[in-house]
Design goal:
It contains 24 helices and three strands. The chain is mainly α. It is extended, with a radius of gyration of 32 Å. It starts with 10 loop residues before the first helix and ends with a helix.
């Protein structure tokens, strides 16, 4: 079989080549069909040919070193024992063994104080450049035609991103156990994955390389495993993976298995599982695209139910998840429909978690149904009380924001607001001393009440 050309494998080069070929065909047709074609047409044809040649030459040069490294057998003494790859910055450890600097630094920064190869306890953690090996590697690279790259300058690899062969083997072994039919193996592996993804970024990054790894992680839950401890470890591992970066958040959220499992965990898990499931939803919702996906999944109802239960270990994570999801306007109507206003109102009126829940209510009140429900729940009374008595400026602000919306939407509440103002001067005081937003809303209410009074006198 003939060797595959560069054009056959690189999408960018394929597209460029097709574009150039179309241009060349057009120019050739002009030369063939027109007797008086211009010299400029020939020049354009030559330029297109030159560009085609340059694209192929550039791609070949770019990939040659990588191809050489893949096909040429690297001497074992030039390989780092940790990464099993050609060393770029060889250094000597106190044990006398040579490692690639990036990978041995990662080993040491993880708290290890032994030599990975000999298991010898290190007298110190200093690293000495191995100039001899470095020179030998440089000469070998020149001999086989491989471009040398010193200290990772070309690809900006950081210690945090360094992944060893051993790391990959550990992850694969644990995922095999999690996917096995033995419950004890599943539980043991899930516990280790939870700890590994909690304590460092490497394993979180490894999960971010493929959605398949996430599917392998949740496999036992997909097959109906009812063990609460296994569920807790898997759900917590999903949370740890999601924390890593935006790529992980996107990968986890778009895996079709994850959100249904998080919803299930909110409904039937241990308190820790339910709290971590809510925390995972909060973390995933940091991406705007994820807010839409999660909102459509029906997750708000179990979150609101968990909020109503009021378990102190879970309620802050639940509130954070609801708040973040409701930043997306379409999720506000879903939250109102699923009963959020009633639950929030009851908690706030009882003086529970007012800071967190009032912020959510201030967003939901933009929906007309929320205003209507607040009126039925007697919300004006406790909102005015918060505005009058709370020492927290943010709570006063959120309360007056809600009252402002009610005042402009439901004139039947004007009397109650006017009586509060007459008795305590609450709104006037906030218009003078509140945050800038609170002052605007308070002045808006006062202006509305004055206009209403003027209309009454006129009548």
């Amino acid at each position: 079989m003939a060797k595959t050309e560069v054009f056959d494998t690189d999408p960018t080069v394929i597209a460029k080549a097709k574009e150039l070929k179309r241009e060349m065909k057009k120019l050739l047709r002009t030369i063939e069909e027109e007797d008086d074609f211009s010299v400029q047409t020939i020049d354009q044809l030559q330029l297109a040919l030159s560009a085609l040649k340059q694209a192929k030459t550039k791609k070949t040069a770019k990939s040659s070193s990588l191809e050489m490294l893949e096909t040429v057998s690297c001497p074992d003494e030039f390989r780092c024992p940790l990464s099993n790859e050609l060393m770029r910055d060889p250094v000597v450890l106190a044990s006398g063994q040579t490692y690639d600097k990036l990978f041995i630094q990662k080993w040491l920064s993880s708290g290890n104080r032994t030599c990975p190869k000999t298991k010898q306890v290190l007298s110190h953690t200093g690293l000495t450049p191995n100039l001899l090996i470095s020179d030998m590697i440089s000469k070998w690279c020149k001999t086989v035609g491989v471009e040398t790259v010193n200290q990772y300058q070309s690809n900006h690899v950081t210690e945090e991103k360094a992944v060893t062969v051993s790391d990959r083997e550990i992850l694969n072994t644990l995922l095999c156990k999690v996917s096995s039919s033995n419950l004890q193996d599943q539980k043991s592996a899930a516990k280790k994955l939870r700890l590994l993804t909690r304590n460092g970024t490497v394993f979180r990054a490894l999960f971010g390389e493929s959605s398949d790894e996430i599917t392998r992680l949740v496999n036992p839950l997909l097959h109906g495993c009812q063990d609460e401890h296994l569920q807790e470890d898997v759900i917590t591992t999903l949370l740890n993976i999601s924390i890593h970066d935006d790529n992980n958040k996107k990968l986890v959220c778009e895996n079709p298995n994850v959100i249904p499992l998080l919803i299930d965990a909110l409904r039937r898990g241990t308190v820790a599982t339910r709290s971590n499931a809510a925390a995972a939803i909060f973390t995933l919702s940091a991406l705007d695209s994820n807010k839409v996906i999660i909102g459509k999944s029906g997750v708000l109802k179990p979150l609101i139910d968990l909020l109503e239960e009021g378990n102190p270990l879970a309620i802050k994570d639940v509130a954070a998840a609801i708040f973040t999801l409701c930043i997306a306007h379409e999720n506000r109507s879903r939250a109102v429909k699923d009963g959020a206003v009633r639950v929030l109102g009851k908690k706030i009126s009882d003086g529970l978690y007012v800071d967190e829940l009032l912020a959510i209510l201030a967003m939901l009140v933009t929906h007309w149904k929320a205003v209507e429900e607040l009126g039925e729940l007697g919300g004006v009374f406790w909102l005015l009380k918060i505005t009058r008595e709370s020492e927290c400026k943010r709570n006063k602000e959120n309360a007056i924001v809600i009252l402002h919306t009610i005042c402009f939407s439901d004139r039947t509440k004007w009397k109650e607001i006017k009586e509060e103002e007459s008795s305590h001067g609450t709104i006037t005081r906030l218009a003078r001393e509140g945050t800038s937003r609170a002052q605007r809303k308070a002045n808006g209410i006062l202006d509305r009440l004055r206009k209403a009074m003027n209309l009454t006198h006129t009548a």
